[in-house]
């Protein structure tokens, strides 16, 4: 069993190392790329198919065929919860697109991430660049729960587990995979994320907390 590198607390609380914008970078994706959330099968949450906010069109996120995120759950019927789940999925996919394209200037990255979450994610993604790696395989996201907060219902907490047991670090030069763990529990990660709805109707992630091997995911 293999896992990707967990986003460290130091990265999550880091001061601005890289300034992020929502401007588009060079498109380095290839013909084998697929649109994240499209054709994901029955396992993909209904949130991925929810109608986009009329105020802001969601950017298209492209991932290679060997980099797959599966989002389980959703479909509660509550439009606010569905919107939070949808944009939470967008955030996860935006990080992986940045890893794949080797660019932190992909439109989706700055679209779904802001504040400490954006700064921490930039440090985390940069680690993949520095190590000359990407990842391959499938990560399963499950037990996703949304708590909507605020009088205007413009804040939310999204918690979920990820199973990285079928995801592998891949060396970009050699193509070899690595990162095996001895204890299967180390492939399970519990996340608590905070989101805020901006003036364009986008649920942006502002803070991320994670714990590997958490009992909540076992």
Automatic annotation (TrEMBL):
Disordered: annotated segments: 28-59
Assigned keywords, A-Z: Signal
Signal peptide as annotated in the record: 1-24
Highest taxon above the source species: Bacteria
Protein name: Lipoprotein
């Amino acid at each position: 069993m293999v896992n990707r590198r967990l986003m460290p607390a130091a990265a999550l609380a880091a001061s601005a190392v890289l300034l992020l914008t929502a401007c588009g970078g060079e498109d380095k994706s290839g013909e084998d790329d697929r649109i994240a959330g499209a054709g994901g099968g029955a396992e993909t949450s209904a949130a991925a198919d929810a109608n986009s906010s009329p105020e802001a069109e969601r950017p298209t996120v492209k991932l290679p065929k060997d980099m797959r995120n599966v989002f389980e759950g959703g479909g509660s019927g509550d439009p606010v919860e569905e919107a939070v789940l949808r944009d939470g999925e967008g955030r996860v996919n935006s990080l992986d697109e940045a890893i794949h394209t080797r660019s932190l200037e992909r439109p989706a990255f700055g679209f779904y991430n802001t504040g400490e979450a954006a700064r921490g994610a930039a440090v985390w993604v940069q680690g993949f660049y520095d190590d000359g790696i990407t990842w391959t395989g499938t990560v399963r996201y499950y037990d996703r729960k949304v708590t909507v907060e605020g009088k205007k219902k413009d804040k939310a907490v999204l918690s979920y587990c990820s199973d990285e047991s079928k995801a592998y670090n891949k060396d970009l030069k050699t193509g070899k995979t690595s990162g095996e763990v001895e204890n299967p529990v180390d492939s399970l990660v519990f996340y608590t994320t905070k989101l805020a709805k901006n003036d364009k109707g986008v649920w942006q992630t502002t803070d991320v907390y994670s714990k590997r091997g958490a009992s909540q995911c076992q």
